[in-house]
Specification:
alpha+beta, homodimer, Aminopeptidase, 228 residues, GNAT_dom (chains A, B)
């Protein structure tokens, strides 16, 4: 998604540490506009957890967490997404999602990602620009530490910075933890309140329909589709 | 969304007329790879309805139809999207949606758009790349003619051409026409079948959260957010 890749989120150099701990070192870390992930690694001695943009090299660890999330929802057998899909669809020529990751700088490299959020920009024809939050996930061992809230807080800042009118996301009914988390920050359940249903048409059904002969127009007129 | 803007949908030069009517003129119209909307206008004498990519000049008419759609759902008072929002978010520097429109070449210019579909690309962490269908709308006078199916057929071709794993969309429970249309092409109601709920967190709540002090980490560690 070009919008995501290219937009500099100027306001996002304020740090969570700044808000929480009023830590002077954390403020210094963030205030330089040229600040990059590399610079963040310089803070290793003072900061254990870092929230940063997902990189292509994170796909392997994100993929593991993604499967954990699906398994925790008892849908592990439905996961069709591979590491390569993540690389292509999140970091290739035409990315369709963006990500942030939570890294533990004290862990070894292979298990350093403790959580991630996956999102993309969309549009609601009533409200306007939306941020679609597909996943927010924290490794089960680290729940209740505040790290999940910190990830969601970063997502809120991104949404705010890009002028999104709302954040939207789906939650399985029994996932009461996430529902509570969303409700704590003011979320509305559109399924409950406005009777919204989410529909999915699988790729094979889409293919069949795309290849099908569609009925002739009732009024006998002709219709043509331009190259799009 | 760069992916949408730049990708040429090579297969999409086949026409609906070709599928339905085996009309030689329609086939000729579409077979040139260099075919453009301008060329389509040459078919005025033979083709009444044209499905083409939405243009910035269509925003005024799309906006009218969008309001009609919301009013038909009894949500007219909730529409906050202006023509300018459509221009900026669909056709500006960082477009977040794409559109196709159905044009009546026999109508005058101000009322030539009879229907539209609005969509964007997204990602499901189980399935992969998705096409999100926000709206499919046909002016009420033209319902039941097959024009709505033709719009949806074009969306299916786009989804197929881009390798999307599924089309997803939301429908209000009482909008049985759209539910039937989706189910006819094989849609699953994820709210009914898998107990999925759609959540929305409004922009003002997001702002409040983004500006809030978040709780300190339970384990006393520090966390920092890099520039994203």
């Amino acid at each position: 998604m070009e919008s995501g890749k290219s937009s500099k989120i100027a306001g996002l150099i304020t740090t969570v540490s700044q808000l929480v701990l009023k830590d002077k070192r954390a403020i210094d870390l963030g205030k330089d506009q040229g600040d990059k992930i590399e610079n963040c690694s310089m803070s290793k001695t003072m900061t254990r957890y870092v929230i940063r943009r997902g990189q292509i090299d994170d796909c392997s660890q994100i993929s593991v967490l993604m499967r954990e999330l699906a398994e925790s929802e008892d849908y592990g057998d439905r996961v069709e997404v591979s590491e390569d899909d993540l690389r292509r669809d999140g970091f290739g020529d035409n990315p369709v999602f963006e990500s942030i990751v939570l890294e533990d700088r004290e862990a070894d490299e292979e298990s350093s990602i403790l959580g991630y959020a996956l999102f993309f920009m969309g549009f609601c024809s009533w409200k306007g620009r939306l941020l679609y939050l597909e996943d927010v996930y924290i490794d089960s061992e680290y729940r209740g530490t505040g790290l999940g809230i910190a990830l969601l807080h970063t997502i809120a800042k991104i949404s705010e910075e890009r002028g999104c009118k709302a954040i939207q996301g789906t939650v399985v009914e029994w996932n009461t933890d996430v529902m509570k988390l969303y409700k704590r920050i003011g979320a509305t359940d559109m399924t409950e309140n406005d009777k919204y249903h989410l529909f999915a048409i699988g790729g094979t059904d889409v293919s069949r329909f795309a290849k099908a002969r569609i009925p002739a127009l009732n009024n006998g007129s002709q219709i043509v589709t331009c190259e799009l």
